[in-house]
């Protein structure tokens, strides 16, 4: 009788340990699944919690994206006021770090999304708020988001299962992108 392998490897090993704690990482996997099945309220609760945890731990790359994802989930669940506050909270982290490129790019993407979700009024409010926050003399070119190299990424993160949208991905180098949710490095083909 063949001996069972107790720790069968599942797919290629991650390039480095995910920055989130294991518990947060599992919660994130669950939240992505809840988003897929349309349980936005519960997904929002989890994203919110993981975002706060990441924020407390000083993970300033993951925290804003997780707040934004929490905001997106709450808005889809109909809790628009709460969701809007979380979008602002995420964007405020970029503003606090003077990452005006990320602030504007992520902000205008959130404005577009609010319009897609049928919340033209909130889209306008967010647009006005972005204009208020951004300093008139800030040089947006100071924090550019590297444009995507012509490489193929998996559709979802191999580690947390989050959807990898080309316009939300940051590239660490021409072969490696970073998951916007768990922060793991993902190898592109
Ligand atoms: Zn991930």
Series of secondary-structure elements, N-terminal to C-terminal: HHHHHHEEE
So how many helices? 6
Structural class: mainly alpha
The profile of the biggest β sheet is: 3 strands, antiparallel
Number of E-type strands: 3
Which labels suit this protein?
189 residues, Serine Threonine Protein Phosphatase 5, Tetratricopeptide repeat, 3-stranded antiparallel sheet, 6 helices, mainly alpha, single chain
Descriptive account of the structure:
The chain has 189 residues and is mainly α. It has two domains: 22-143, Serine Threonine Protein Phosphatase 5, Tetratricopeptide repeat (Alpha Horseshoe); 146-189, no CATH class. Helices cover 51% and strands 5% of the residues. It is built from six helices and three strands, in the order H-H-H-H-H-H-E-E-E. A three-stranded antiparallel sheet has the order 1-2-3, with no helix packed on it. A hairpin with a 2-residue loop joins strand 1 (170-173) and strand 2 (176-178). Helix 2 runs antiparallel to helix 3 (62-77), helix 4 (80-96) runs antiparallel to helix 5 (100-116) and helix 5 packs antiparallel against helix 6 (120-133). The longest helix has 17 residues, at 40-56. It is globular and about 40 Å long. The mean pLDDT is 86. It binds zinc ion. Zinc ion binds at residues 157, 159-160, 162, 179, 181-182, 184.
């Amino acid at each position: 009788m063949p001996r069972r392998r107790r720790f069968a490897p599942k797919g290629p090993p991650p390039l480095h340990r995910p920055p989130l704690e294991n518990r947060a990482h599992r919660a994130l996997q669950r939240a992505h699944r809840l988003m897929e099945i349309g349980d936005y309220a519960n997904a929002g609760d989890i994203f919110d919690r993981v975002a706060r945890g990441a924020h407390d731990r000083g993970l300033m790359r993951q925290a804003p994206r997780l707040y934004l994802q929490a905001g997106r989930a709450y808005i889809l669940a109909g809790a628009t006021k709460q969701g809007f506050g979380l979008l602002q909270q995420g964007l405020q982290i970029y503003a606090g770090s003077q990452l005006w490129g990320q602030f504007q790019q992520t902000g205008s993407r959130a404005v577009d999304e609010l319009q897609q979700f049928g919340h033209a009024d909130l889209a306008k409010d967010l647009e006005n708020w972005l204009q208020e926050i951004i300093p008139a003399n800030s040089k947006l070119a100071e924090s550019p988001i590297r444009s995507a190299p012509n490489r193929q990424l998996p559709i979802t993160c191999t580690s947390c299962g989050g959807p990898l949208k080309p316009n939300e991905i940051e590239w660490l180098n021409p072969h490696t992108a970073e998951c916007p949710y768990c922060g793991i490095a993902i190898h592109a083909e």
